[in-house]
Amino acid sequence: MHEKGSNAFRQGPSQRDAQTSDAGPATVPERARWNVGWARPADEMALLELFGRAFGHALPPAQWRWKYAGLDPIGIMVCRDARPVAFYGGMPREIRWFGTSATAVQIGDVMVDPAERGVLTRRGPFFLAATAFAERCVGPGRAYALAFGFPSERHTRLAEHLGIYARVDEVLEASWPALPGRPGLFQRARPLALEHLDVVDALWKRMAETLTGVVVAVRGAAYIRHRFLEHPAISYLVFLVQQRFTGAAIGIVVLRDHGEAGVELLDAVAPPQSLPLLVAVARRVAGRLGRQKVFAWLTPAAANSFAASRPALAPAGIPVPTIIWSSSPDLGKLRGRWWLMGGDTDFR
Fold first, then answer.
1. Which of 111, 105, 121 has the alpha carbon at shortest distance from 85?
2. Predicted local distance difference test score (pLDDT) of residue 119
3. What are phi and psi of 148, to 5 degrees?
4. CA atoms lying within 13 Å on the CB side of residue 87
């Protein structure tokens, strides 16, 4: 997930961002009162304090390091008097762009100190952080071909108003009732062991071959291991689903138990024709756990792949935007063509 390492953000300042420098924060126009520069791993403590002020709860340092592992710098930081008041970061994600490989960035941890939120205008701290990130990192000739994320509706409207984002998709919430917890007649599910990770790459290859008309994030073994098996704060249920009699691999399914709220189907790696079998496994797991339902975040393109499992679908109120400030992506081609699930976020 983070194989780009220190090269991921290695871009010089643009003309529009001429008053910032790779050497460190430099003063922006005096009326703005903020300094803009790269955020580095050494800024971890100050950024975690900003996270707590912005979101009202703490983030474990191990989870922060897991998200930004191998990146230096890790994003853009806006400071007032050497104190961070805004941060805009993102995690590299390999994608298949209509059948072609590319590197995107999944935006995460966009945060502004509550004391500065009254300045949500051009030249405010959010604007400065977002546009500096866009200009240095996203678009032709830069580290990332495009960006995507899962911000709130309010955040998206603000970024659209400022000319930074354009929405290209939306998230639906799918749900299925739980099934009795007895094993399936023709399939079996067992926890995915590290020694079986090689099967993930084979399943992803088969899946990718069928998804050439969409933008889909890579779900290979390295990603599944990092994202789910090595998460420092959340225990996921990751199953290898096989044919009971032949042992042939059907797919990988990733679940998270939310207690009375149900079991979340976070990710799946399988050809689309096998996805209903993975949903059935998830529903039986929910039954064994005494939960009432399985639910999932799906973009409409992903929901189409799950259609044979007959999910109930409802809007989740979560837009999927892309950055347009620093580039001119073909929005007509991108709109409604994203194949994303809840596991493509960094926070579920």
1. 111
2. 58
3. -150, 160
4. 27
DSSP designation for 118: T
Cα–Cα distances in Å, from 225 out to 148, 199, 254, 273, 331?
22, 12, 11, 24, 32
CA 343 to the chain's CA centroid: 7
Q: Which residues contact 319 (CB under 8 A, 6 or more apart)?
A: 150, 151, 153, 156, 167, 169, 170, 171
Phi, psi of 130 (to 5 degrees): -65, -45
Alpha helix stretches (DSSP H) within the chain:
44-55, 61-67, 125-137, 153-161, 198-210, 221-224, 275-288, 300-305, 331-334
What is the SS3 assignment for 304?
Answer: helix
**Residues of the chain whose pLDDT is less than 70?**
1-32, 117-120
Check: CB of residue 286 under 8 Å from CB of residue 296.
no
Cα gap 307→311, rounded to integer Å: 7
Number of residues that make up the chain: 348
Q: Give the three-state DSSP class for 262.
A: coil
CB 111 within 8 Å of CB 51: yes
- pTM greater than 0.85 (yes/no): yes
Whether residue 41 contacts residue 77, with contact meaning beta carbons closer than 8 Å, is answered with no
- The Cα 100–Cα 151 span in angstroms is 26
The structure tokens listed for 291 are 């939960």
pLDDT of residue 4: 34
Query: Residue 19: what pLDDT?
Result: 39
Provide the mean pLDDT of the chain: 89
**Model pLDDT, residue 9:** 35
251 φ/ψ angles, rounded to the nearest 5 degrees: 175, 175
Which residues are CB-neighbours of 154 under 8 A, at least 6 positions away?
none
Q: What would the pLDDT profile of 183-223 be if each residue is shown by its tens digit?
A: 777 889 999 999 889 999 999 999 999 999 999 999 999 99
d(CA 273, CA 320): 26
- CA distances to 20, 21, 160, 297 from 24, rounded to whole Å, are 8, 6, 29, 39
